[in-house]
Each structure stands twice: as structure tokens, then as C-alpha cells.
Amino acid sequence: MNTGVISTRYAAALLEYAREQGAEDAVYENMRQLIATLGSVKDFMPVLCNPTLGSEERVGLICSAVAPSAVFRRFAQLVVKEEREDMLLFIAHAYLSLYRKAKNIRAVKLTAAVPVDKELEEGVRRMLAGENNAGVEIESIVDESLIGGFIMEVDSLRLDASVQGQLREIRKQLVKPNRKLV
Fold first, then answer.
1. 3-state DSSP assignment of residue 137
2. What is the Rg, in whole angstroms, of the alpha carbon atoms belonging to the chain?
3. Where are the domains of the chain?
């Protein structure tokens, strides 16, 4: 089974339906909440896929993860009816991707050793918006193991300007091909 094709079809259909209903922004927020919940509650998917739960209980469980819009609730009912609960995370990510593409939004993940201040965040936002006036969504993460600097991921590009990354590169250069330090 190709999860990419299936999840993209569900996401595209949901986006089209949400557009018709004027609820694409609300569904986008619901999907973001769902992804956050699935990432933080490790037992969510095993419970959701438990065969002893009834359809309404599954829909209720999915909707309890977010503050659902009417469109999202109908989507949850469809997913449960078609027994695609195991693909929920893939569908949510596909929806975010399609929504961002349609709205010209660039997703940025900025990981730094210390919290990023608003001024720097705005500078990154202006730089990435560029000439095409793209919207920019920045997710800031603090990871002290970077020691200093930052790692910025935009679309499929990754810029590692961290001290940890530079030390890793220096180590690679110092290690001989037979894996011994010089």
C-alpha cells in the first residue's frame, strides 16, 4: 500500500471540501493540533486502532485531540468509516503541505542553542518572504546540545551553522580513512 498516494488523495479532497465550506483555515489549525497531539501522546494511535472501539468512539477520540470544526468532524467520520485511522498522521502532514502550497506559505524550522528573540525571527521572516511575498511559518526549537549557532530547515534545504555541526566537520577532516585520529 502506498501511504503517500492515499494520504495525499484524502488531504486533497479534504482541502477542496474545506475550501467549498470556507473552513480551510480552521481545518489547517485542526491538523496542526492533531499532529502536535499525535507527537506528544504516544498511546494515541494504538488506542485509536484498537479493534474493540466502536466507530463513534474512534471519531470522538480523534475529535478530542483538537477543537474540531464541523468539516474536521466530517473528515474524522470518513476516515473511521473507511478504516484509514492508521494513516491519520500522513493525511495531516499531506494536508499541511497542500495548504501551504496553495497559500504560498514556507515552513521554517529554526533550532538554536538559546531561545530565538522576536527581532531575529522577523529578520528570518523578511529574508525568506523574498520577492514573491511568501508567508513564513517559523517553528523555533531550543536545543542546548548545539552549543551555539543554529540549524535552519526550509522546505527541503538544511543550513547547519551550529558549533556542534562545525565540530563534527572538523572531526571528519581529522579522522583518517582507516578511522583513526591523526
1. strand
2. 20
3. 3-101, 106-174
Edge to edge, the sheet with strand 157-162 lists 135-142, 105-112, 149-154, 157-162
Residue 106 and residue 135 in contact, taking contact as beta carbons nearer than 8 Å: yes
pLDDT at position 2 is 63
Residue among 2, 10, 5 nearest 85 (CA):
10
**CATH number belonging to domain 3-101:** 1.10.520.20
Residue bearing cell 467520520: 77
Tell me how far apart the alpha carbons of residues 150 and 69 are, in angstroms, rounded to a whole number: 37
> Which of 136, 66, 139, 72 has the alpha carbon at shortest distance from 103?
136
Counts of helices then strands in the chain (DSSP H, E): 8, 4
pLDDT at 109: 95
Task: Mention every residue, 6+ apart, whose C-beta is less than 8 A from residue 54.
Answer: none
Q: Which residues contact 144 (CB under 8 A, 6 or more apart)?
A: 113
- Count how many residues are written for the chain: 182
Q: Give pLDDT tens digits for 63-84.
A: 999 999 999 999 999 999 999 9
Closest CA to 79 of 102, 60, 99: 60
**Spatial distance between the Cα atoms of 32 and 130, rounded to a whole number of angstroms:** 25
